[in-house]
Amino acid sequence: MKTLAALKVLVVEDEALVSMLVEDMLGDLGCEVVGPAAEIEEALRLAGSAEIDAALLDVNLGGRPIFPVADALKARGVPFAFASGYGEAGLTEPHKGSAVLQKPFREADLRRVLEGLAAQVV
Amino acid sequence: MTVLEADAVSATEEVANLRRRLAEAQAAHADEVRRNEAFSRIAAAIGAHQSLGETVQAVIDGGVELIGAQFGAFFYNVTDEAGESYMLYGLAGAPPEAFANFPMPRKTAIFAPTFDGVGVVRSDDILADPRYGQNAPRRGMPEGHLPVRSYLAAPVTTVDDVVLGGLFFGHRDTGKFDARAETLIIGLAAQAAVAIERSRAGEAGHRELTERRRTEERLKFALDSGRLGSWELDVGTRAYDASDICKSNYGRTADQDFGFDDLVATIHTSDRERMLAAMDEAIRTGGDYDIEYRVVIPSGETRWVHARGRAAVRDETPVIGGGVRRMAGVSLDVTERKRAEERQRLLLNELNHRVKNTLVTVQSMAAQTLRAADGLEAFREAFEARLIALSQTHNLLTEQNWESASLREIVDAELEAFAGRERLDFDYARDLRLNPKATVAIGMAVHELATNAAKYGALSTPEGRVTVAWSVEPLEAPVRLVLTWTERDGPRVTPPSRRGFGARLLEKGLAGELSGVVRLAYDQSGLVCAMTLPLAALEP
């Protein structure tokens, strides 16, 4: 179990304004931002090899689903949450039940979700 | 005269007498044969299931022949398709024109016993009958009537004493119809009643059949027009009967066999259990069967079918528990509707995604603006300007069905709000179309550059100018768009003490979002922003 302070969070988000918001919020919470990755190849590279504790994934990356990145994180045992305007309805079957941050969200929502992820970090 | 002679005379008389009696017997026999033949013809005509008119004609002709009448007529009531009752007649021994100009016979004293079904009227001379000539205005036969003296009329009634009509026979001479003729006509009237009733029943049946056929044709037309297939299932034997359209709903041609097992096998494996359960339920409860399921037709294509039906007991008596013997219903190919629904669902999801994303974008803009603003009034001004800039790019995209926007139009739209647009120069070989994501990103970037120029840069003085130039660099992979914003002749530029929202959005946000490089150079002659962006990330 880790605290949010210095938690290394991979951010995958393709819209500049949104990732800037997430970066600022994560900064306020004391986390360290890895990324943000705006495209799937970069996200896969970071998910596979970067030093990260948790990840926040935009479900739709420029029209391409994020699920391969989620699978890579799962394989590595890195806890993650989806950020989506669809809510859980936007998730495919194997990923239902994963943590979801419904857009738009407040800093307190992000903190709650991240604390949940940090609790899974061994 | 001797005894012998007397005997001879007597013998001769006897011979003559015998001859006469023989002739009489022969004539009677011939009569009998003729009557038998007449009866046979009548019976044959009745048995031949002819039309009402033909049957009536056979009866009149037979009657005339049986009793040696000159004229015969049969007046009878018919009911037309509209239910109106009117009288028709058949004639023998006279052309139809003989009656054409007369009104139908009324229930006068003469005719009443016949039309009321009271009994036979027989008269050796109708002109001498006390019942004749009693009724105004004619007081007898109308001018031009057939010359009738001998008269014989019998009502034609059913076994239930319903009067169907009357048989009338006449002869121009008196005393032509005897008691035997009367008996014959009574027999004939009875036969005629049976024949007419049968003929009417046949015609009613034919009408009903015609009506049923019409109804079926209408139903078939309605089913065909609606592309509705119809089907029927015998619950006990599982015999399944499908119409041609029904078969086509399951990808079969009209000449292909399609039984219940074929139906079940055609239904998508994921929907099969649900379909069988729904059918069982309808059979068990006698309720409605109403289901939509996927079918995999022989070509391999998956289509949607909506099937409706109702379980019915074979006879009308309600049977408790398992009384359903058959199900009948319709089927409709609803693939197009299902696809439209799916498209609509995706569209709605996409819209929701877009709205939610826009809300986060606005949330982010508010947060970023607030961090940099010196007070609420400044916040409001900057925030509203950014909100409108975002809205401008949305307008351009909406015009193009949210598919793309032209780079030139994006720049124009964002600069519309600023004074001094005449101090803007363009330098490019050809316009480009950008995808929605790039449109919003570049739109926001141009807005930040223009805002900065109006506040601190070239657009803050009357002499300052801005050049927007772009070109595609195809020589080095990946193909890139090089877009530059160059300010000159404005106030002397110094790099800002702190990096504001605009700089962050351009150098980090835009570069990251579009996978390119964005550089801000605070040249003394003016700000230069150079964006090098891979074309693949920009194109629709």
From TrEMBL, chain A:
The keyword Phosphoprotein applies. PROSITE patterns: RESPONSE_REGULATORY. The keyword Phosphoprotein applies. GO terms for biological process: phosphorelay signal transduction system. SMART domains: REC. The modification 4-aspartylphosphate is found at residue 58. It comes from the Bacteria. This is Response regulator.
TrEMBL record, chain B:
Keywords: ATP-binding, Coiled coil, Flavoprotein, FMN, Kinase, Nucleotide-binding, Phosphoprotein, Repeat, Transferase, Virulence. GO terms for molecular function: ATP binding; protein histidine kinase activity. SUPFAM superfamilies: GAF domain-like, PYP-like sensor domain (PAS domain). Residues 289-346 form the PAC domain. The keyword Transcription regulation does not apply. The keyword Phosphoprotein applies. Residues 1-35 form a coiled coil. InterPro entries: GAF, GAF-like_dom_sf, HATPase_C_sf, PAS, PAS-assoc_C, PAS-like_dom_sf, PAS_fold_3, Sig_transdc_His_kinase_HWE. Pfam families: GAF_2, HWE_HK, PAS_3. It catalyses: ATP + protein L-histidine = ADP + protein N-phospho-L-histidine. Its EC number is 2.7.13.3. PANTHER family: HISTIDINE KINASE, TWO-COMPONENT SYSTEM SENSOR PROTEIN. This is histidine kinase. It comes from Caulobacter zeae.
